[in-house]
Amino acid sequence: MPETTHTWLTPCSPARRVGGSTVLELRGEIDVHTARFVTARLDALTAGPCPDLVLDLRGMSFIDCTGIGALCRARNRVLTRRGRLRLVSTDPRFLRVLGALRLDDVFEVRARLPRAVPDPLAVAG
Fold first, then answer.
1. Cα–Cα distance between 21 and 49 in angstroms, integer?
2. Taking residues 109-118, what's their average pLDDT?
3. How confident is the model at residue 119 (pLDDT cuts 50, 70, 90)?
4. CA 54 → CA 7, 9, 33, 46, 114, distances in Å?
5. Which of 52, 75, 109, 110 has the largest CB neighbor count within 10 A?
6. CA–CA distance from 3 to each of 35, 99, 111 (Å)?
7. CB-CB contact of 10 with 4 (8 Å)
8. Phi and psi at residue 111, in whole multiples of 5°?
9. What is the dihedral of CA 15, 9, 85, 77, to 10 degrees?
10. 53-86: pLDDT as tens digits
11. Sign of torsion, CA 114 120 121 123?
12. pLDDT tens for each residue of 9-33
């Protein structure tokens, strides 16, 4: 039986460089079907020395253990290369999962994008 994938779902938007940071928005479901695509994208973005990666998770609707594994892998790669990884999320479910897994102190989680990074979700005033 052929493997099914979420063909309607693109979990990664194009990465953008802002200052010295790379910003990647993850959206939709990051699960057993999409985590390998996310992992491949994160591996590419963390391949060089001193990666500074910001993962905007505000568009993410669901994450399972394979998705959490992809985030952990990215974190380990960044630390090995003496870089920095920041997660942007205010989703109480996601934050509860990190807490339950005792990863809330492992990841640098912020409610907003860093100041130097323009927020595409911000409403122009």
1. 13
2. 81
3. low
4. 25, 21, 23, 11, 8
5. 75
6. 14, 33, 36
7. no
8. -85, -25
9. -100
10. 999 999 999 999 999 999 999 999 999 999 999 9
11. positive
12. 557 778 888 888 999 999 999 999 9
